[in-house]
Amino acid sequence: MKLRRLIGFNLLTAVVLGVVGFYVGWWLGHLVKAESIEYFDDTGQNDIALFVAYFTGVVGFLVGLGFANYPVQRLLGKPPSLREKETAGIGRYFGLCTDHKVVGIQYLIGIGAFIFIGGLNAMLIRFELLRPTHLAWNGNNYLTLVGLHGTMMMGMMTSGILGPFANYFVPLMIGARRMAFPRIEALTFWLLMAAGTILMTALAFGGFPTGWTGYAPLSEQSNMGVDAYIAFFALVGLSMMLLGLNMLVTVITMRAPGLSWSRLPIFVWGTITTSVLMVLAAPVLVSTLFMLALDRTAQTSFFNVQAGGSPYLYENLFWIFGHPEVYVLALPGMGIVLEILPVFARKPLWGYRLAVTGMVGIMLLSFLVWQHHLFVSGINGDLRPFYMLSTELISLPTGFIFVCALGTLWAGRIRLTVPMLFALAWIFNFLVGGLSGVFLSDVPSDVTTHGSFFSMAHFHYTIMGGLLFAFFGAIYYWVPKMTGFELNERLGKIHFWVMFIAFNSTFGPLLVIGFLGMPRRVVTYAGYLQGANEWVSISAFVLGASMLVFLVNLVWTQVFVRTPAAANPWGSKSIEFQLPSPVPVHNFDRIPTFGPDPYPYGGIEGTRPVVVPARPTA
Amino acid sequence: MGAKLAILVAAVLAVAVAIGFYVGFLTGGPTPYRPPAGSASGARSIDLTLQTVAAVGSKLSPNKNWVSYLVRENGVWHRSTVWTLPANTLVHVTLYNFDGQSGLRNPFLAQARGVVGGTFAINGKPASTIDPDAASHTFAIPALGVIVPILGVTDDAPKQCDDAPCPMSTAHETITFTFRTGKKGHYRWQCFVPCAAGFVYGFGGPMQTVGYMDGYVNVV
């Protein structure tokens, strides 16, 4: 019986078919012959074979999961299954499942695993930087570690909030029973898992020295590890596009009666604005990487100066995606923080419309600032003032979010629960990140800080201090609802305080170290910075240890203790907390209707939503 | 509870083993070569014997067509570019170059710097510079200020080397020079000529992979 469970369309079959597909593609790729690619013989580097192998490997992986069943059955004229494994016990977490709640949990575990790998790489980087000269890894491996860390984090965290939390909660928050395209929803997750695995194979092909940006011409001339980078980010981009599109269609077409745009929970607005960025920015990334792949295989010359191409083209195209990408990471965090604050301040969200305006403003402006990444690249100097001003302008809508957060806290009955602590930390961290960002948006100061650890510390304050703190806030806030089991509050607080202090002890000094001239992506540094770097490394190790506290909490409470969570442990007015924990498969017995105020705390209690709770499933 | 605990312990062990392999892989690389101490003169000195080849061959590398440095240990040629050298020691380098002339992109590198006496020898004849167009590679340790241009074999020289490691009976140029290691440290050395045939701008493959055209000098 157990053996029968292993046979079929599931993760095990997917891995087997993925590996077989990889080697079949590798073999096929080596059959490709053309005069223009004779360089393979000289270099021993067959990029075509590797790209074909990645492609067929991913196809095999998806077929093994069962993604081909639906189209094949349609082609054969047979009635396809409209739902996949929605009630199939624990097995549904190891395959294609069309239940948005299962996909949300799959995302949480899957992305968590890859974030763990990314974090491990960060620890290894900081270990090397304990000494100003060589300590453990050679320069090439150090650069690969930096690239793996940055690419893994930036790629995986694009879906770090939308993947687990928007997939799980947006349908609930809008009163829907499912996502608009459930199979595509599952596909976005499994594409991401395939992508993460591919990125790790970069090590087997010589690594890649380009960091997460993959700038040409370095990416054109580097080892086959760059092919893994390209395949990874292209799959991430594809996943982002599909995820964003699915979210937008779901919110636009599947809202329950009474749920007008001005009544949407603010987290849904964070999801909408993020999704727009995903849908518009990710295609630029995928196209750019396709061009880079053509340069490396078919000998085109989009980015090759010697043959008439331009590396500037790559850099511009990358950042046309890359800067909206930064806000793909920031906006969901803002949505979560503004969702959490009213619950634990027992007040309506202050300035709901201002917050929405801020999110939409950030979304629009984020497409107009990308060249501030290229201030010192030799671009036309006349372009600098515009991009300096547009970058500084984006601080206005960001300021709206801060005003709304602080206005919500003002005179509130604040409860310092773990989710609230993470939300408050977000305010502090993102403020430091925003203020340090001003130095990078101003041309005169950017000239001295660009490419330094100051820049690195800045974006860690915004992305890790912003997104990751919001991510953990969301975990402590929503995981009991998702799994039906409580998390330990005391361990949660220990996790928070160790993480918050160690985070600031790590990245605060790095702002100073950057000002003192330490460059990014260089394995050695000036001897007089050793003391400061030792401090930072030790702080980073403590930061890493704080994640272990979280893991202990998660495993202990969710696997061993399993204390059932109350349906509404926080006293939230949001609709998902009016449902049982965990939420039943069909979400609602009857589609709910919504009242006028999304945050009826204080004197207007009970005005929304009108929910008929679903009966718990057996 | 027991089954869960067993699964947890197994999972933790599996992760620990995976991390161990990962870290081991990252610390891997060419086996360091430590030349035996020499006594050519009264001063502390050692001998380092190298060759540069246009294609390293399938016996020494899976990338048989990559350009590479080789080092001689007990009369046998190895592909290792990580060398452990004693501090404050004179290193007498003998370099046999079997590769052709590809020229320098930066003529600055045509003059020897950082070597004892400011000169080196080409086939036994003292020199301080070479024709930039006749260069094949360079040997440079930037942190120690060492730069030595390496004269290439002319295209019409008889008995060109086909298979590395190259025997002395095939066409080659012999470059000799001496540099001082100075204080303890970990220094990168490399060839500054983009000589990776087939790669964009000549900078890929062997120019980016430790063990071919670059490596480390561990001064201990």
Overall description:
- The complex is a heterodimer of chains A (618) and B (220).
- The mean pLDDT of chain A is 92.
- Chain A is built from 21 helices and 2 strands.
- In chain A, 64% of the residues lie in helices and 2% in strands.
- Chain A is an all-alpha fold and 618 residues long.
- Chain A starts with a helix and ends in a 5-residue tail after the last strand.
- Chain A folds into 2 domains: 1-81, no CATH class; 82-613, Cytochrome C Oxidase, Chain A (Up-down Bundle), CATH 1.20.210.10.
- In chain A, strands 1-2 form a two-stranded antiparallel ribbon.
- With 220 residues, chain B is mainly beta.
- Chain B folds into 2 domains: 1-30; 33-219, Immunoglobulin-like.
- Chain B is built from 1 helix and 13 strands; from the N terminus they run H-E-E-E-E-E-E-E-E-E-E-E-E-E.
- Chain B has one helix at residues 2-27; strands spanning 37-38, 45-53, 68-73, 76-78, 82-85, 90-97, 120-122, 125-127, 135-141, 146-151, 173-180, 185-190, 214-219.
- In chain B, strands 1, 2, 3, 4, 6, 7, 8 and 11 form an 8-stranded mixed sheet that branches. Chain B has a 3-stranded mixed sheet with strand order 5-13-12, with no helix packed on it.
- In chain B, strand 7 and strand 8 form a beta hairpin.
- Chain B starts with a helix and ends with a strand.
- Classes of the chains: A mainly alpha (618), B mainly beta (220).
- The interface between A and B is medium-sized, with 30 and 33 residues.
SSE pattern of chain B, N- to C-terminal: HEEEEEEEEEEEEE
Q: What's the gyration radius of chain A in Å?
A: 24 Å
Given as residue ranges, the uncertain stretches of chain A (5+ residues, pLDDT < 50) are none
User: Which ranges of chain B are low-confidence, i.e. pLDDT below 50, for 5 or more consecutive residues?
Assistant: none
Specify the helix fraction band of chain B.
10-25%
- Decide which structural class fits the backbone of chain B: mainly beta
Number of strands of chain A: 2
CATH class of the largest domain in chain A: Mainly Alpha
CATH topology of the largest domain in chain B: Immunoglobulin-like
Beta percentage of chain B is: 25-35%
**Strand arrangement in the largest pleated sheet of chain A:** 1-2
CATH class of the largest domain in chain B: Mainly Beta
Q: What is the SS-derived class of chain A? A: mainly alpha
